Amino acid sequence: MKVFYCHNCHHQVFFNNTFCENCNTLLGYQVNHKTMGTFEQVDAEHWKSLNPQDQGQLFKPCYNYRHHQICNWMIEADDPNIYCESCRLTHIIPDLSLDKSVMYWHRLEKAKRRFLYLTQQLNISPRPKKDDDDRYGLRFNFLMSSPNQPVMTGHQLGTITLNASEADVVHREKTRLNMGENYRTVLGHFRHESGHYYFDVMTHLYPEWLEEFRYYFGDERLDYGKALEDYYENGPIEHWQEFYISRYACAHPWEDWAETWAHYLHMMDTLDTAYHAGICIEANHKIDPDMHFKESPIGSLDFEHTLTNWFALSYSLNALNRSMGLEDAYPFTLSNGVLDKLRFIHRTLMKVALKPETRRSNNQEIF
């Protein structure tokens, strides 16, 4: 993620800020510029931009910004929408009458905005799903589970459902331990489930893409229900680390893709933050990797260099966490098989998603 600054006092601000902590000037994220903007309130609904690129232009905070303090994204004043591009993707919110649901909603939207920021950088921002038959749009349902009505996190036909309890740290940690996972975060859920969504989009747009997909991930036509049943009954295959990024990835090719896709997004976001922060790593031993950026990792032309940078950064992050008595920030091993899958994902985005001519189908915008 980029480094943002207040245009009023020039101090650093952050992606989730609503005001500058140095000068108290109002802040809001502007999708069109992919940056945090600085504003002066004109009236109850309108804010005036203090940014050099659109100084004096009027904007309005998202409805969920003004009324629920759930969001911090801005909309141009003449836009008929009252919700920002992030909040328009949310179809169902948790029942706000239930205990802690507002807090859960806040955490879910915060993670969703972080996920969406990276899709903007990759030029694959999803648009809201128009109706149930819209195969290219996306919507999110955030549901509270109950003893009589459990909620399963998952994706189906462009709708991603998240159990709002995943925003509860204690619940999520218990689930992580019960499932034998070494990583489980709200942001990770968004990235994993989005993998299923983008797989469907790619399959509809480019069915010939499946041939190479099957070479790396296997045949997705295998019975999904039976595959999951076998996985939960028998566990992962022996020596799964040689071929998969996680235990769950070996359950079915769809899950392998979604898990690997999520890890690609983890890499890109973390490396992009290091790139914009000007971080570099000098190896103290000749066999250790170092990290020097010669280009942005987003859409990098030399992905092998990007992978080398990732090895250096993740190794250092894990070492720093251990120094603080924390678990590894990136508790995974990238085998040669997994690296090939990551290369395939990068090629897919470079050759397909980043080309404007591939962003439309049947005269409708895809992303």
TrEMBL record:
Residues covered by the Zinc-ribbon domain: 3-97
Protein name: Zinc-ribbon domain-containing protein
Pfam assignment, any one: Peptidase_Mx
Xref: InterPro entries: UCP012641, Zinc-ribbon_6_bact
